[in-house]
What does this fold into?
Amino acid sequence: MIEITNLAKKFKVENPKKLSEQDKKDPRLNGRFFHSVKEVSFSCAEGQVLGLLGPNGAGKTTTLRMLSTALRPDAGSIKIDGVDIVSDPLLARKTIGFLSGATGLYGRLTGRENIAYFGQLNGMQEAEINSRIDELSQRLDMETFLDRRSETYSTGMKQKASIARAVVHSPKVVILDEPTTGLDIMATQTVLDFIRDLKAKKVPVIFSTHHLDEVSELCDAVTVIDKGVTKFDGSFDEFKGLADGSLHQSFINTLGIDAKSVSI
Amino acid sequence: MWLVFFKEMKELLRDRKSLFFMIALPIVVFPLLIGIAAYVGSQAIKDVETKTISYSVIGAEYAPDLVLKMEEIEQFERVELSTSFADDNAIKEHVKAGNVDFVLVIPDNYGADILSTGQITLRVFLNDSGLNMVNRRLTEITKEIAEVNQASAFMALQVNESQQVGLLEPIVIEKVNVADERENWGEKIGAFFPYIIFILCLQGAMLPASDLGAGEKERGTLETLLISPIERNKLVMGKFLTIAFAGVTSALITVVSMAIWGLVLSQGVGVEAVANFMAAIGAIDFILMFLMLVPVVAILASTLLSLSIYARSFKEAQGYMQPLVFIVIVPVLIAMMPGIQLKGIYAWIPLTNVALAIKELIKGTMDYMQLFAIFASTTLIAVALIGFCIYWFKQEKVLFR
It folds into this structure.
């Protein structure tokens, strides 16, 4: 169970004069600060998959980075099983698995070494790491390439190794930031299968995406954010019910924009 | 911390590029280049020495003994003059045109009896801009003749031997150097040593540093690392140690390889002198020198790591680091200037004071009390920089630029 309430994050604008006209029109710009995330709230229960939707620049990545403790929120709280992770990020990091589309591997290490390194950083013992890697490599079908240097991997292999690396410490919550962006169909399928697998294991998953078909395939709950504010937070069925038959239309409705102006 | 260190070392050792810069370059490539340059140089000198030199003599009839001696030299080849020259310009043109390598003009007052001839001026027309052996060879001959003439003149004047010596050089200045061998050599090479070490450390540490900071950003591994449950200071210390270790290793490898190659090339010449010199320095001074280097390396490594993590990409990191070389060179160059001593303001300039202290240690004239102050202040700077680096690693605006 992970609960996010009234999360906010602002960034200092180094040089306000350099901003483009479009940036200046953004209502989130306030003096020398850009309020990237103003008020985001949602929750994800055990065994639930939550899809985080929103246009580019809506604050999705910032929100997920706060969840992963890479960024510290200015306001609001993040609770995993009732424990506030903002005040104790080190403990929280042991319970979170994080993966983004841009995540890389250490090219000069083998896949196995990459995964083991993060296992060690998480304080796992060697035997524990080895058995976990064996298990993951079977599940993700990585035996053939696990001991090769990861710089020789294809995109799909890299993504598999990254997934294994993200969950080597058996996290309580998994957060994925656009995990399928830039992947081919096979690699995308690997990621989706992996999410399904986590769901079956009752691990809550939060992932951001631009693909509505992935949402309809996997998600139990949907959250839409725009300009740093939660616009919609509910179950997938409620989201679907916002418009007749078209998820795209539902999405656009949540943003509160006149559909005609978008379709032009 | 060690976990990060060992992983970074493993990765570093698998990187052919940085290994090449760290090990192959100083061990093989640099000595090879120096060796080639030395070989070409010695070959050129040999060529000049064995080349036949053609010459002509004007006024040969005044000095048959001299001409005879010149003809005995193998590399000299006399060319008989068919024409006579109107003036000096004509002789100059003759040499310039390449007819002969030099023309010797013997004056008509040439003779063996100095008392009647006075000083004799032999004029040699030659192109003296290049490397040549004419002057040396001629001086060998004339010196021999002059000494004989001198002796007979002294004999005629009935001057005894001590008077002869006094006449030839009435006043002599004799230097009595109170500096011992060690101080003498220490002054000459003492400043050069820290210069080489500092620069080599910096060069060796640069590549790993950009890889460990900016490289992580570029490859997208930084974010994952940051959200691992490892304390930020341990992460920074692990990376810092890797960079410092790489810098020191690369510097040591270079120095050792230079020493070995130097011994090989000089084929044992001067080994004894070097060994004596090294023996004079003593173990404690060596340990002190090494201890002085530790905070310096720490300063360099933490600065490099701070720059590297600030940079968005590998390329940007390299751009930030290049000026650092100049920033390090200047204070060390100050220490290399003659007359600069570990006094007053120079004792307070970071890096300069360490370079000077190492020089003093090599010379054996160190004031050990000052060593404490320098060591303490340099360590303080190093600790402050490492602290800054850890602070820097916690800044969101640095990490997610």
In short: Chain B touches chain A through 22 residues (CB under 8 Å). The mean pLDDT of chain B is 85. The two ends of chain B are 25 Å apart (CA to CA).
